[in-house]
Amino acid sequence: METSSKTAREIYADIKNNPARKRFGYGNKAVLVNVDPQKAYTRVDKYKTAYETDPNQMYYVNDLAKQFRGLGWPVVWTHVAYMDSADDAGIWGTRTDTPDSLQNIKFDSERSEFDDRLEIDRKNDVIYLKKMPSAFFETQLQSLLVWHQVDTVVITGGSTSGCIRATAVDSLSRGYRTIVPEECVADKHESYHFANLTDLSLKYADVVEIKELQEWLEKQKK
């Protein structure tokens, strides 16, 4: 095992700035999957479970959603919420049982609501309730992608080390080119965040700056 005195942020910077870094690249049509941008994870002023990496994250996500809708490409939002019994959280909901615990994000609670800054088109965007880390697990996401004939999955949301990583691994495993705009994902601590951006970059996805993705989307206009 290689050792280093560098921080996770510094290691990610080395990967990002490597001119020989290989890419999966963009395909012909993409889906935007916004993973759990709900108040339990975005309202840092109210909840200990929330986190913020880039203060403009929600606004970048809104801009991406507008670009996707303009192209007629699907926009997906996921969130988590659980029964009062927490039976639907399974083993994931058994390690702790405090007001902040995952399984205590209940239906119709404020913690289950999407962030108020988001501009969600509830008539045309797709909203999935998920129970586990990956947006693919036991949702209709795979069927939606097949129907829309997409070959590229763009992932935003949180957390980088949890649901973003899980969704990216599942996306790659299903044969999709996977893109993670770095300003659009967040985590509780920079160590987890940058370590996972590094791992995603090396193995599972193209981690890109939001500007690059926006420019690619602009070029897709007919």
Topology readout:
Elements: H1 8-16, E1 30-35, H2 39-42, H3 57-71, E2 75-80, E3 126-130, H4 141-148, E4 152-158, H5 160-173, E5 177-181, E6 185-186, H6 190-204, E7 206-208, H7 210-219
Explain the overall architecture.
This protein has helices at residues 8-16, 39-42, 57-71, 141-148, 160-173, 190-204, 210-219, and strands spanning 30-35, 75-80, 126-130, 152-158, 177-181, 185-186, 206-208. The protein is 34% helix and 15% strand. The protein has seven helices and seven strands, in the order αβααββαβαββαβα. The protein is α/β, with parallel strands linked by helices and 222 residues long.
Under the CATH scheme, which class? Answer: Alpha Beta
**Amount of beta strand:** 15-25%
Structural class: alpha/beta
- Mean pLDDT over the residues: 97
Shape: globular
Number of contiguous helices = 7
Second-tier CATH architecture? 3-Layer(aba) Sandwich
Outline of the structure:
With 222 residues, the protein is α/β, with parallel strands linked by helices. The chain contains 7 helices and 7 strands; from the N terminus they run αβααββαβαββαβα. It has a single domain, classed as 3-Layer(aba) Sandwich (Rossmann fold), CATH 3.40.50.850.
